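We emphasize that the prediction below concerns an isolated chain of 382 residues; any contacts that depend on oligomerization or on bound cofactors are therefore not represented. The input was used exactly as deposited, without trimming of termini.
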Amino acid sequence: MALRVLKTALSLRSVYRLQRIQAHLMSSNAGAEVLFERVGNAGVITLNRPKALNALNLTMIRQIYPQLKKWESDSETEIVIIKGAGGKAFCAGGDIRALSDAGKAGDALVKDLFREEYILNNAIGTCKKPYVALIDGITMGGGVGLSVHGRFRVATEKTLFAMPETAIGLFPDVGGGYFLPRLQGKLGLFLALTGFRLKGRDVQRAGVATHFVLSEKVGALEKDLVDLKSPSVSDVAQVLDSYHKQNTLDAEKPFVLQQHTEAIDRLFKASSVEEIMENLQKDGSDFAQKQLETLAKMSPTSLKLTFRQLQAGASMSLQEVFVMEYRLSQACMMGHDFYEGVRAVIIDKDQNPKWKPSTLAEVTEEFMEESFGSLGDRDLIL
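Result of the prediction step, given as a token string:
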């Protein structure tokens, strides 16, 4: 009897899990999750899941990609603008809970989501029309992928940027292997490993955003952009520059990491994560100690994957980076730490993940080689 009850409970759990995955794929209000408008000469994309902080799911990706390609080849559309609804977030990331459920259930979402998301990210990076992302609010993970590869990224005082993936057993994907090593010095590696958060003007100072505009002026800026007649890239830049120059908020404040820039470049200049840890331990400063404590909480597997991802990505094309990152995504979906990270941070919220392996030394070179190795006919094709 007890066995039958257990089996019933397990089968119900599987049913609920599959229902959540299906809801992710075929949301009943799928049409409302992304809004598309033609305004003047502009195609405007609005991420419209404000209650979920505009978190990106597969349904949304499957709507945005064909519309972006259509506008790119449409002679009537001169510029593409993307923004988030609700005032709190541009896009707070991907729907990782659904991804975790899918992985446990052996669902194809773990392949489809990464593949189609990276194809969309690449389409943004290669878009022939001026692409303007209004990153007014929280911009993390998947939201970074929808913005950072575009020609223009407009931050406001409400922007909060981070790539926090090492804390959940992942790596800073969506092209992080391309844009992070191209930031000044070792800043990108520092952001990637620690998940450090940048706010407001600092997002632009770091090079993640191209412009910094007051949140209350974003509506007027958007109107000026859609009113442009046959704008060139330089016409768009001119409008954005004028708004950027008008905004003096926090102009006198130094960059949040300015006093630590030299230390970051020195301590994170290393041939391995272990060497970075040694550098931090030897340094002994408060800043170094704080980074040691932060890195000690992260998945050792994620730290090692991320270090090599950025090391390799520094000399790769954007397309090569996405191929590499797709391989890494599939390695993470086959592993332990992603599911444990989601449990600790999203589900149980105990913030106490039990990583396996639990130390950097236990992450083998064999595992690393396999994670970066070709998937053969399952590799991402762009």
